[in-house]
Structure formats: structure tokens, C-alpha cells
Specification:
- This protein is mainly α.
- The protein contains 17 helices and 6 strands.
- The strands form 3 sheets. It has a two-stranded antiparallel ribbon with strand order 1-2.
Length: 477
Amino acid sequence: MFQRVIALWVLLVGVGPALADGVPDVPLQLAQATSLSDAVGLQAPKAFEVREQHVKVPTVDLTIEPNDLWDRIRRGFSMPDLNTDLVTDRQIYYINRPGALRQMFSRGQRYLFHIVEELERRGMPTELALLPMVESAFNPTALSPAQASGLWQFIPSTGKNYKLEQNWWVDERRDVVASTSAALDYLQTIYEMHGDWQLALASYNWGEGAVGRAIAKNRAAGLPTEYQYLNMPGETRYYVPKLQALKNIIAQPELFGITLPPIANRPYFVTVESRVSLDLATAARLAETPVDEILALNPGYKRPVLPKNGTQSLVIPAEKLEIFLNNLETHDPSTATWRTYELQEGEGLEGVADRFGISSSRLRQVNGLSPRARIGSGYTLIVPSEAPGERIALANMLPTHPQAGAVEPPPAGRTLIQRTVVRGHNGRPMVVERRVVVTPPPAGAHRGAPAPGRAAAPATKSAPPAKAAPAAPHKRR
């Protein structure tokens, strides 16, 4: 025992000076004294050294403002991840359609900064900025068969509940600023109801009442009440996995072989207020911006002319603000491409068409009036200019239905001859003819989904009500 103590003391004495002198050949490593340890029967001490860490853990410096908006979105991810087979299924779906992804990203670059700003201002997860990809593929004029419209797909009734104006001139369900505010209000409400973002998203798609009943049913049966365990329609079951799949792709695009288009972390558009009467084509000219871009930033306007109800709000690219304001100062309102005209007492549409030098059929077309429609004094017409070089096609902005005040006469019936073969008294077949007056149904009162861009008219009172499942408060598919 005494020999072992002496040997250990000798070992420490030998190593001490080496460490104290800072010998470069000893990089924080215990000196080896194998021969001495062998002599006294000691086991040689293990050598320890500090090596350089080659695997660097990725970190995010939150004190530095990101230059790329995608990076900013990633920093705000805060929803619990959903890991199910349906998420994998949707990831495969999206990465197999790179063209569709590129189109969504291209559309979204106009609107994403504003949405992210609003989410951060409210303290909401930035995953929600990707929800319009699931809802509308970032198409602000998207219209579902159930008449859900806009980036966030509001049906008319829910839009009215959230004060989104809908009339002949505007549809704020398509307005980017107004609909984003309404959608985030709604999402906050249903999140506070459930305390869970996945259940809130299911409610956004299916309706909070339906989700609440599904939760209660599971609870009564002793089953889990999380999103993935609820019994729900197929669309809702895929709804959150779609968002999770997009989140995963944007979080690590290189892992999926996807290249995200760079989006600058700065405002894409600004809103200006103007008391000068404008139409969208003129606004595009003043902003020195293509008409298509102005339409994409102002999809809430249903007419080429901005309504004359006081101050007019117009969205233009942020980089064009100074150019627009400078050109607006020298703008002559008489050079507008479109204008409005209020019908005077005793004046007819044909007389207005003659006054402005256009055909009456053209004037009826742009105002959504059939050849048989009757209008009276006070009716506001939109009148296109026919001057050379000013006929800008805004087909998707033209009305599909007349404004209130137009009287459509009842459709004229047509007479059909119905022939029926019957047997006479002598047993021989004979043909009986009778005249039947057939009245065509109102436009839009047909079965099936309405044509894209057109709203279905309400069914007539005589038609029996159709049986349907209860609709979600947000929208119906």
C-alpha cells in the first residue's frame, strides 16, 4: 500500500511542472508514465483531451432583423407539429407539383408581408400566414361552389358577420387588407374557444359548433379529444395536414428539393387615400404599373371605377408611391378611361349611349343589363371611354349582375306541343296533342355549382328546399 502511494506522488510531481510550464506538446493531456505504473503495479491513467467541436448546431440570432421574409416566418413558427401519415401524404402531393407551389409562392409574395405584420402585431403564430395557400392558393378572386370568396374564403353570411361589405361596387371578402383583418379576428375567437390551434383550424374549416360536438362525443366515450382523434369529414381531416406539410417544406426547403423565391422583408404595397375620382386603369397609368398588378392588389373592387362615396382607398406597389403621388398632382380627371353617370329624369339608356359615343349594347354589357331590363332616374351607369388607346380590357372586372334598381321583366314563356299515344275505344292507338306553356327558370336557379365568377341566384319559393348537412359558419364546400 505504501509503495502505491509513493508511486502516485512521483507521477503527480512529474506531471505538475509540465502543466505549469505550458509545454506545447502536452495539449491538456495527462503525461503517460506507463513504465512506472508497470513497475508498481498501477493501471495507467486514461488520457483526456479537449477536441474541437466539428458538428455545429444551427442557431438563430433573434437580435438581427431578417432580410428574407421566409426567414422571418420561420422564426414565428409556434404551433405544435402534427406528425401523421396524412402529413407525409400531403408533403408528397406538394413536392410532386412544383409548378403549383411556384404559382402559390409567386402570388403570395404580394400579400405575405402584410399578413405576417398583422400576425406578429397580434402575437399569433406565423404558420397562419400559410393558410391562404390551403384556402385559395393565394388567389384573391377564388370562388368556391358555395360562394366562399377571397384569400381566406369567407361565405357571404360570415363575411357580413365580420363587417366585410358586399355590394354591387365592392366585395371586401376579396379585399386583402379587410379580409385579413376579419380572418385573424375569427381565428383568434375560435382559438380562445378551444385553446388549441389545431382545433381552431378545424373549426375554421368545419365550423366551431361541429368541432365542439365532435369533442363532446369523444369525451363522453372516454376517447382523446385532440384533433387527430376526432371523427370529421375528409376535407377537415386533410386540412391541418396540408398546413403542416407546407410548414415543413418552408422550414427546410432544401430537404424537399424546393427552392423558395426570395421575398424581401419589407412592405410590398401601401394604401393611399384619394378624393380625386379614379378608375383602376387610370390608377395603373398614374402608378406606371401594369393593370394586372393593380387588379391583383385591389381585388375587392368589382367595377373598373372606384365608387364615389367620399375618400377612395387604393392599393399600389410601395415602390411606386412617390411616382403615383407626383402623377396624381397633374392628373386631369377628364382623361379617365372609365366614368360614372347618373341617369336623369326622362332619360333613357340609349340616349346616354349616344351622348358618350358608344353602342347601347356595349353600355348594357358593362352594366350587367339584359336587353329587356328597365332602369329609371337616379340609376348609376359606368361608362367606358372609347377613345383610341384607352380601351383597356378589364373583363374580370365587368359586372355579372345589375345593381339594385334595374327591373328585369318576367321571362316570356314558350309553347310546346306535347304528344301522347293512347288507345282509342276500338283498341287502335291514337295520338293526343296538347299545348303546354313552359316558363324558363330564373337565371342561376339551376342545379349544380354556378359557373366560375358567378353567384347562384336564390331558388324560387315554389321550389322545395334542398336537404343538406348543416354548414360551417365560416364556409360551405
